[in-house]
Each structure stands twice: as C-alpha cells, then as structure tokens.
C-alpha cells in the first residue's frame, strides 16, 4: 500500500551568479518510490531551473538595453517618461515601470500615473535598488507581493541609468509572472508532484498546481525551516502524514539579505 507523505523533495538554485534569484522546489505527495525518484527529481529540477534561468535572462536583456539608451535622455524627464511608456507598450509582459532617483530613492515618475503626479507610492524592495547601485548593473530582484502598483504580484527587475560615470536613476520594471508559469508548464509534472519557483526571500513566483492561491505568498514556516536546514545535501527523516501546503501571509518577516541561494547549491529532503 502506498504511504503518502508531505515531502519537500529537491531544490536547485539557478546557475548564473548574476541572477541569484530563484530556486525550483518540488514536493512529492507519495513516497512509495522515494529512492527511485531521487535522481529523476534531480534531473527534472535541473532542467526546470535552467529553463527559468534562460527566461529571466531573456527578460533582463531588453531592460539592460533600455537603461543604456536612456543615458542619452538623462536630463530630460519628459523624454524618459515617453521612452519607458513606449517600451512598456511593446512588451506584453511588462506591467509597469518607474524611474527611481538614485539620490533620494523615491519615484520620479511611474507609468501607472500621469507625469507630474506627486507624491507617488515609495519604491518597495529597497535591497534590489541597493544592489543595482553597488554592482552598477541590471539585476533581477524578487517577487513583489500584491498591493500598490502594478496591483498584482510581479517580478521586479531594475537597471541603472548613468550620467557620466555616476548612476543618476534606476529603472524599475514590474514583470508579469506568466513567463515562469509557462516555463513550469513546459516541464510535465507527475500528478503527485508539485513544482514551485521561489525567490531569495522565499516568496512563491510560480507553482505547477493551484498557482492563483499561492503567487506572491511566502512559503509556509514549515517549508522555510526545511529549506534553510537542508540547503545542501540530503536527509531522510521519518515519514509523516500528508498535508496540503497553504499560503502563509502572516509569517514574521525576515531581515533582507539574511539568506540567499548559493549558485549550484542543491538540497533535498525525503519524508
């Protein structure tokens, strides 16, 4: 008789150190073939992680180019507003864009508001802006939970706009999560498995099952503990009865930067 268990089976960080963004995790809801499935799970998660990696790079490149081209209009806020608005219209997955003043860390404008509207909601995910300023390059941030522009969960990417040798502005892009959902859909998942993509702060960016109820939500405290305790290597504790993961929006916040996926790190947990 099959013995069901709630298994967090495997997670694999994306390969490129540039990203340091995401991991793919998989739950196996039925553990009767745990040993046989481990290598299969590793292979599937690697494939899915590489696909997510490619999708993120594909989305980041146009933003990098836009940041470079915007340097020509760095002293023309009206021109920058028009350029960002035009770029957003040509990219269906680009939900909203904002221009952040690198000195004050406040929005100069946001494409969801007419130019000149102030005050605007403050930018969120400040550590992402700080990483742009420190690395002087475009970065993939994390998942923006619902609330505020653009009004639904989105992946935040940011890129610098230079004036001479200094960063004058940071372009903030809210990217729809459909791309990562399509990546997971392109990797067939057995009926008893659940794949999820999570960001460095353990916010769910994509999920192979019941995605609408989980996107933008933090993983459960139990799952967080398993991830943090088993970032590398494998363990097989005593099996337990199955439970259905539920969104956890009340988990206490963790300080930014407390933990990041290490490139090429693999962990797994059975049981």
Walkthrough of the structure:
- This protein is an alpha+beta fold and 271 residues long.
- The protein has two domains: 4-57 and 178-269, no CATH class; 81-175, Beta-Lactamase.
- It has five helices and eleven strands; from the N terminus they run E-E-H-H-E-E-H-E-E-E-H-E-E-H-E-E.
- The strands form two sheets. The protein has a six-stranded mixed β-sheet with strand order 9-8-2-1-11-10, sandwiched between helices. Strands 4-3-7-6-5 form a five-stranded antiparallel β-sheet, sandwiched between helices.
- Helix 1 runs antiparallel to helix 4 (178-185).
- The longest helix has 37 residues, at 34-70.
- It is elongated and about 60 Å long.
- The model is unreliable at 1-21 and 232-271 (pLDDT under 50).
List the helices and strands and how they pair.
Blueprint: E1 4-13, E2 23-30, H1 34-70, H2 77-90, E3 94-101, E4 107-110, H3 126-135, E5 139-144, E6 154-163, E7 166-175, H4 178-185, E8 193-198, E9 204-207, H5 221-229, E10 233-235, E11 266-269
Parallel strand pairs: 10-11
Antiparallel strand pairs: 1-2, 1-11, 2-8, 3-4, 3-7, 5-6, 6-7, 8-9
Helix pairs in contact: 1-4
Taking the alpha carbons of the first and last residues, their distance comes to 16 Å
What is the spatial order of strands in the main beta sheet? 9-8-2-1-11-10
DSSP, total strands? 11
Uncertain runs are: 1-21, 232-271
| Main beta sheet strand tally, sense and closure | 6 strands, mixed
From the structure provided, what is the oligomeric state, counting identical versus distinct chains?
single chain
Order of helices and strands: EEHHEEHEEEHEEHEE
Proportion in β-strands: 25-35%
Q: Radius of gyration from the CA trace?
A: 20 Å
Give the overall form.
elongated
Mean pLDDT value = 75
Domain count: the total is: 2
Helix count, DSSP H or I runs of 4 or more residues? 5
Pairing-aware structural class of the strands and helices? alpha+beta
- Classify the helix fraction into a percent range: 25-40%
